[in-house]
Write a structure and sequence with these properties.
The complex is a heterodimer of chains A (250) and B (174).
Chain A (H helix, E strand, L loop, with lengths): L4 H4 L4 H8 L5 H13 L3 H22 L15 H6 L6 E2 L2 E5 L13 E2 L5 H4 L22 E4 L5 E6 L7 E6 L5 E5 L6 E6 L2 E6 L7 E5 L5 E6 L2 E7 L6 E4 L5
Parallel strand pairs in A: 5-9, 5-11, 6-10
Antiparallel strand pairs in A: 1-3, 2-8, 4-7, 6-13, 7-10, 8-9, 11-12
Helix pairs in contact in A: 2-4
Chain B lengths: L7 H23 L2 H17 L8 H29 L13 H7 L1 H11 L3 H11 L4 H8 L3 H18 L9
Helix pairs in contact in B: 1-2, 1-3, 2-3, 3-7, 4-5, 6-7, 6-8, 7-8
The chains are: A alpha+beta (250), B mainly alpha (174).
């Protein structure tokens, strides 16, 4: 495809780009460099291509869309429509809610696509692979917000990545088909991430955030892990809220 | 659940590590931030459900899947737009098609860049934008199923087109 400088007498743009991008090696690189040292036109062309690449990178960055967590579609809670079916749906969830300084490049709180038949056994009905679209209310950078998801399995895990400077995790019985997790007060970075087998709460040692997780009927078991250790296993039926202290021991 | 794939911690790490750049890439590729969110979501759902056999190139795999999803979604939305346009005279109450001038007013740069990218062949756009994300020519070649040398040719072609449309030589003495 590219021109051999030893044959044509000049390097073409593809050669020069391979050189600029570090894709040319060995003999090829040596041949192009030798030609550039001897040619009047090709070094100018190389510089032009380099300048174009740099200018394009600038323009692309300037044209990038704002971070979507802060530009969610109007009328965000499409949750109502998802619940209207009033049926458990299996869902492979990858959802994210960001609050505070962990929100470097947030992709809005986003959820869930149905993944099969996990609730077929529980409900006696095959679940239909229809997307479950659940978008929580917009979560401005420093305020609490919530993420909702339909669990994949009657047993799921709530995992807190580490001990904090303060704050609690409350797990309480709720209604409807969804788990609803919210950042409820405190300050510091926090991130709620929904994964196929449960919820992950990303945090830091300085955080004093508290979290509430509302669990729908039908969930059989919740395993709570903090900093990699299982600290509680909650089994149905739930009598009432379970409150766990997230503060690290002094 | 996803026993043959990535475990939870791996998935979380991959998500945390790549969602930002994947979103940026998808938004540039599609020119549509909303569509880009769907693309990113779909790429990660596929990673969870149908992970690649070769785990050593997950990043390139994610970009390739995102590109495939973007192509599919854009074609689908183009078909929808086509239907609306065809039906326009029979539907006097239909929303007017988006006005480029309004868009341009909102963000001239964004509009120009999106329009220029949209004018590239899908494959050239993919190659150019993957290069922008720092992929090597070899990785790009694998992603778009071509030879490494062809990647240089595609970048050259795309850059030449964009140079005119985006005035990339504006600051260079010629």
């Amino acid at each position: 495809m590219t021109t051999d400088v030893r044959v044509t007498g000049h390097a073409d743009d593809a050669d020069l780009l391979r050189l600029l991008d570090g894709a040319a090696g060995g003999e090829e690189r040596a041949a192009i460099e030798a030609h550039l040292a001897a040619c009047g036109a090709c070094p100018r062309r190389r510089d032009l291509l380099r300048a174009r690449s740099a200018r394009l990178a600038e323009l692309l960055a300037a044209a990038d869309a704002p971070a979507p967590a802060f530009a969610m579609r109007p009328g965000a809670p499409r949750r109502a429509a998802a619940i209207a079916g009033a049926r458990w749906r299996a869902a492979a969830a990858l959802a994210l809610l960001l609050g505070g300084a962990l929100a470097v490049q947030p992709v809005r709180a986003w959820i869930v696509r149905s993944a099969g038949v996990l609730w077929a056994a529980a409900t006696g009905k095959a679940s239909r692979p229809a997307p479950v679209t659940v978008v929580p209310a917009p979560a401005p950078r420093d305020s609490a917000g919530a993420v909702a998801f339909v669990p994949n399995d009657p047993a799921f895990t709530v995992r807190v990545t580490g001990r904090q400077a303060g704050g609690t995790l409350t797990i309480e019985p709720g209604e409807g088909p969804e788990v609803i997790a919210a950042i409820a007060g405190g300050s510091g970075p926090a991130e709620l991430l929904v994964l196929p087998d449960g919820l992950e709460i990303g945090t830091t040692a300085s955080s004093t955030r508290s979290y509430r997780v509302r669990v729908p009927p039908g969930v059989a078991r919740i395993t709570v892990q903090v900093a990699g250790t299982t600290v509680r296993v909650i089994r149905a039926p739930f009598a009432g809220p379970a409150v766990l202290d997230l503060q690290r021991p002094r | 659940m996803f026993g043959s794939g990535f475990d939870r911690a791996e998935l979380a790490a991959l998500f945390a590590g790549h969602r930002g750049e994947l979103y940026r890439y998808a938004a540039r590729w599609t020119g549509d931030p909303d569509l880009a969110e769907d693309v990113v979501q779909e790429a990660f759902v596929r990673l969870a459900e149908r992970p690649p056999a070769d785990r050593s190139h997950v990043r390139a795999w994610l970009f390739r899947v995102a590109t495939t999803v973007a192509i599919d979604q854009q074609r689908a939305s183009r078909r929808r737009l086509e239907l609306v346009r065809r039906g326009a005279d029979r539907l006097p109450m239909a929303d007017p098609p988006p006005d480029p001038a309004v868009e341009a007013e909102r963000s001239e740069t964004r509009y120009r860049v999106r329009a220029a990218l949209a004018g590239l062949e899908e494959r050239d756009r993919t190659v150019l934008l993957m290069r922008e994300q720092g992929f090597s020519h070899r990785e790009i070649a694998a992603a778009v199923d071509t030879t490494e040398k062809s990647v240089g040719t595609m970048i050259a072609r795309a850059l030449e087109k964009l140079a005119g449309r985006l005035d990339l030589d504006g600051r260079v003495d010629r």
